[in-house]
Amino acid sequence: MALCVSRFGASLAFMVHAGALPATLRAWGMSGGEAGGIQTGFNIGYALSLVLSSWFADSLGAKRVFLWSSWASAAAGLAFALFARSPDSAFWLFALLGLTQGGTYAPSIMLVAQGVAADRRGAAVGWLLGAGSLGYFASIALAADLSERIGYEAAFLVCGVGPLLAALIVAPGLRRRPNRVVGARQGGLRDAFRFLADRRSLLLTAGYTAHAWELLGMWAWLPAFLTAVLAVPGGAAGSGLWIAGAIHLSGCLSSLTMGRASDRLGRRAVLVAMAAMGAVCSLSIGWMETLPVWLILPMAALYGFSALGDSPVLSTAMTEATPPGSLGAALAVRSILGFGAGGVAPLAVGLALDGAGSGGSLVAGSGWGWGFALLGIGGVAATLCAALLAPDRPASPSLSHLRS
């Protein structure tokens, strides 16, 4: 419970840039490339944080790394809220926030893996990521609404206190939880990549890399696309809530249900279904800009559901395919590859919008279709990786209990 509440609070700052993007585009006079670059800075910092925190969690303990990162994220969230007032300052401060936030993610998954049996692990990871999706919903809704009504400064401040609240809640909540140290790291970085010699681990890592490209690009730019759609005559009122609900409430539902579904149906079946559905959404939604809002919003909700639906399954499958003593290293390598690719996705979409002349003005234009089609490449690749996995059967509760 403490981990889930903490995940919600930390996630309040995660989507503040995307939610306030229409307001900051106007206030700072940014191009699409500059706006995408700020998100890319966060993603690169987040990737580096994931790598370092996952790597050291084996030798220092997941609980210790998680708590250190929670307090660092609290300080960085307040710094961004108070001092990000231009594209340059926003780039560096948002990158700093990303550099601290990654340590609240992978170690929390490791804590779940340490304490939950295999037949319930998918559901447990799903609840953890579902709490994060609920935080993303609140982040988008608050940032979009406050930035339009009061100003982006208010949006930054309200969302920026989320990591502080998360740290204050989770520290006493984990007080009785032991800090399990697997052991000192044996060998160098080359040894950390050895888990990729296993075919299942290789396909899961490749699928995660493709998944991260699609998901991070979608998270950064789908709110702006929906803002443009809702701004036209006949659009919906209260756009912040509509946008946040379409993307992140559906993602929350996906995290809560797909992890449990993979416990019952097997990891491979759910991964194939979610990746294929996400690819179809990426390749379609950008070309739907002239269609009625009542058609676009359900497609956006389906996009949010499918793009996040494989997250808890990929994470759970990785904990099962990797020996406990190497799990931190495996998650670190996965982060290098996944967020290395996903980190540049917002910039790629922004450049596509600039090339079509629609990025900085957030108007309807052909650039949206091509931008989201770039993300669809990741969805197609993730589908192929999932399809190549060997068929698996749901774990028997009794057998998983004996193995645990």
Question: What keywords describe this structure?
Answer:
404 residues; mainly alpha; Growth Hormone, Chain: A; 79% helix; transmembrane
In short:
By secondary structure, the protein is mainly alpha-helical. The protein has helices at 2-11, 16-19, 21-28, 32-60, 62-83, 87-101, 106-115, 118-149, 152-160, 162-173, 189-192, 199-231, 239-265, 267-285, 293-309, 311-321, 327-343, 345-356, 367-387, 397-403. The protein is globular.
Describe this protein's structure:
This protein has a single domain, classed as MFS general substrate transporter like domains (Growth Hormone, Chain: A, Up-down Bundle), CATH 1.20.1250.20. The protein is 79% helix and 0% strand. It has 20 helices and no strands. The chain starts with a helix and ends with a helix. The C terminus is likely disordered. InterPro entries: MFS, MFS_dom, MFS_Efflux_Transporters, MFS_trans_sf, Sugar_transporter_CS. It comes from Azospirillum cavernae. This is MFS transporter. It is found in: Cell membrane.
CATH C-level label: Mainly Alpha
Strand content: under 5%
Q: Termini distance?
A: 21 Å
Poorly predicted regions are: 233-238, 397-404
Main beta-sheet strand count, sense and barrel state: none
CATH superfamily: MFS general substrate transporter like domains
Specify Rg, calculated over alpha carbons.
Answer: 20 Å
CATH architecture: Up-down Bundle
CATH topology: Growth Hormone, Chain: A
Average pLDDT: 81
Name the helix and strand elements from N-terminus to C-terminus, one letter apiece.
HHHHHHHHHHHHHHHHHHHH
- Figure out the total of helices: 20
Structural class: mainly alpha
Number of strands: 0
GO molecular function, one term: transmembrane transporter activity
Keywords: Cell membrane, Membrane, Transmembrane, Transmembrane helix
Subcellular location: Cell membrane
Membrane topology: Multi-pass membrane protein
